[in-house]
Write a structure and sequence with these properties.
The protein has 275 residues and is mainly α. It contains eleven helices and three strands, in the order ααααααααβββααα. A three-stranded antiparallel sheet has the order 1-2-3, with no helix packed on it. The longest helix is centred in the N-terminal third of the chain and has 21 residues, at 14-34. The radius of gyration is 22 Å and the shape is elongated. 20% of the residues are buried.
């Protein structure tokens, strides 16, 4: 709790703070089962931390707690190096802070190395794949039209999915045809100005008008059928399903981030200046 308060006082993002709590809970759950004799923070050794990393890599149920487990996925063990490294990063930050603050005489995580991660191979959509993907949502339904507009927005602006889902009508300047994304919602904390095409502006305005009709009190642009801001996991699953229906799921990773890769590639190929 003291560590959490210190990091919150440093102004870290809510997601980072959430990870600190969640990953600490995961570690404590394993520790109580694997080493019930441990009672003091100073009793944690490098060997114990390496045992935990080994457990995450080889023995932890891969999809534990997932709502749609199959019989096959129930038997899968071990997290990906990327997932292991995320948990390892929060753990290393915790013990480094404890040592720096004088709570423990040495840092047991100092020499615990992160695992090598394969080069990013997400790739990008081809024009044919984009056409097939955008044809899947049933635009006669609210959810289908919302999904279509969101995919067009991701494709044409390169927004991260969390940035797109955070948008409100107030973020859009119709006259200037642009989105102003405040630094509080960007990864590098810098405000960005994102230009919009006339066609995309029209789609966004149509969706906002639809929202006002059915959910007059809602502020966000992308809503669930109940009028609440739609979650990242929900829309990620829906986009993945569109990829399956389009018959491209075995050709490319169909995810919100692939739209960002596609935007970047198309921008550069069209002569865009990365600076």
């Amino acid at each position: 709790d003291i560590f959490y308060q210190a990091k919150a006082a440093e102004g870290l993002r809510e997601r980072t703070l959430h990870d600190y709590k969640t990953h600490h809970r995961y570690f404590m759950s394993w520790l109580k089962e694997a080493h019930p004799e441990i009672e003091m923070i100073g009793d944690i050794t490098p060997q114990i931390l390496r045992e935990y990393v080994y457990f995450l890599t080889h023995d932890k149920p891969k999809w534990e707690g997932h709502p749609t487990l199959t019989e096959k996925s129930k038997t899968e063990r071990g997290l990906s190096p990327h997932s292991v490294n995320i948990r390892l990063a929060t753990m290393k930050a915790f013990y480094r802070w404890l040592h720096n603050e004088g709570y423990i005489p040495s840092n047991p995580a100092a020499n615990i190395k992160k695992q090598p991660v394969e080069e990013d191979k997400i790739g990008a959509f081809t024009d044919e794949q984009i056409e097939a993907l955008l044809a899947q949502p049933d635009q006669r339904t609210y959810a289908g039209f919302r999904d279509y507009v969101l995919m067009r927005l991701l494709l044409e602006t390169g927004l991260r999915i969390n940035e797109a889902l955070s948008l409100t009508a107030a973020d859009i300047d119709v006259k200037m045809r642009m989105i102003t994304l405040e630094g509080s919602r960007t990864k590098n904390r810098k405000t960005r100005i994102i230009p919009l095409s006339s066609d995309l502006i029209r789609l966004l305005m149509d969706l906002i008008a639809e929202n006002k009709t059915y959910f007059p009190d809602a502020e966000h642009i992308f809503l669930s059928n109940m009028g609440d801001p739609i979650s990242q996991s929900n829309i990620t699953d829906r986009i993945k399903e569109y990829g399956v229906k389009a018959g491209i799921a075995d050709q490319v990773r169909v995810s919100p981030h692939t739209f960002r890769h596609t935007f970047a590639l198309n921008f550069l190929m069209a002569g865009g200046d990365i600076i």
